[in-house]
Amino acid sequence: MEVTTVQQARKSTKLRTIFLGYLAIFCIGTIALALLLVLIFYMLLSNGAILPANYAEKQVLEAKTVIKAGKPLHLDSKLNLYKYGLFTSDGSLIEGNLTGKQAKAAWSLTKQSDTASQFPYNYVKIPHHNKVTVMRYSIAAQFELPILRRYMPNAELSFFAVFCIAFLVGGALLASSFGRKLTRKMSGLQQATQQIQAQDLDFSIKLSGVLEIDQVLHSMDKMKETLKTSLQKQWNLERARREQISALAHDVKTPLTIVRGNVELLSETDQSEEQKNYTNYIVESTKQMEQYIKTLIEITKAETAATLRAETIDTDFFLTKVKDQVLALAAVKKISVAFAVYNLPDTLYADPVLLERAIMNVISNAVDQAPEYSEIRLVVGTVEDRIRFSVIDEGPGFSPEALKQAVEQFYMGDSSRRLNGHYGMGLYITQSIVNLHGGALHIANSTETGGGQVSIEIPINSFPK
User: Which domain, by its residues, includes 71?
Assistant: First the structure.
């Protein structure tokens, strides 16, 4: 038995350590991002790209002085961060850059006092003679460029929004990186389970470098070796049993053939009526024993994995050979055979001996179940990249139980399909051959005839090795 070893990895790291490493990177990255944004904010503030929070308030105080002095306001500058409205003493808007709705709200808020606030704005009322000026401004850092001020009126909130977006994107990227790394680390575990499931135990387990995963891999390695030893013993015992049964069956055939030959010679001699009956009993029993031995040999062959010898075969030649055998088999029960072919390829890649055996097993079952003078249909055609052989009979069909278990070895539970001399091997062998070709076996009841419908599908050009 081949000895496999666990391939060593570098020193194992706890999963907790890996997680804490990613968490540390995330925290350090978050702090660094916050410090970077604060640094950028103050750099922009120092060179005038961002105006300080009290910039608008200073402008309002200057404008208030101008108004008190009776001078007109000049709003041509792009750096004016306030808006105003000039009202009559009864609240009618005379001029200003506040909209009608904004002006109405400003007058209402400053009606009872000279100052008011309503987030995010502050208001100042400046009476002069019989007119009143109401100014609206915001105490917040703002961008110097008008276009930035228009879409991002609060610089501090804009930087906070950038921080939140970068925080979420960074968290998502780190989570994705952690997930991919964990998936890579667990790939050895997944590969080991798949190979053990397929009973392919000649492989080396690769350690992941993660302590918790490596502990599971070590346990699986021990389980693999134990299972391999147990399966090897079982396989050896099964192989020896099959060889003994096959040898014994072949040994019994020789004396049985001698008995049958002598009984047939004896039946040709002059015998009394009673002696003829005895002789006939021996002949029939001998035939029955030969059938038992043939079935026993068939079973041992089925339990031994067949060797697939696939080749490119001529489709017409192969089908002609199958048709001849089907007609000869059906003639015994006076059954007619209907053939239908469509869209067939010129060549087919398969093992001609095994495929013929699989098809004839299905045909034999159909002939056994079909009543005399009925019809069997053999339909052969291409479905996508597969060729399908469908056999339909007019017999009793499959029971619900048989539809689920018909391909099981030795299954004979369906009384409508059970015949003397059959031991539940036909469809089992067919299923094995179809699997070797990478195909599929479908068992159903025909909606047209009510009888059984068995279909064999195999790839046309290639199949899994």
Answer: 54-139
Would 39 be classed as within a structural domain? Answer: no
Burial of 292 (0-12, 13-18, 19+ CB in 10 A): middle
Give the DSSP letter string of 346-370: SEEEE-HHHHHHHHHHHHHHHHHHS
Of the candidates 94, 113, 139, which is a domain's last residue? 139
Task: Indicate if the pLDDT at residue 2 is higher than 50.
Answer: no
DSSP-derived 3-state class of residue 49: coil
Which CATH number fits the domain that encloses residue 323? 3.30.565.10
Q: What is the pLDDT of residues 333-346, one digit of tens each?
A: 889 999 999 999 99
Domain assignment present for 430: yes
Over residues 437-451, the pLDDT tens digits come to: 999 999 999 989 989
Is residue 100 situated within a structural domain? yes
Contact 54, 122 (CB under 8 A): no
Is residue 30 situated within a structural domain?
A: no
Task: Give CA angle at 273 (269, 276), nearest 5°.
Answer: 50
The whole model's pTM is what? 0.47
Q: Please say if the pLDDT value at position 9 is more than 70.
A: no
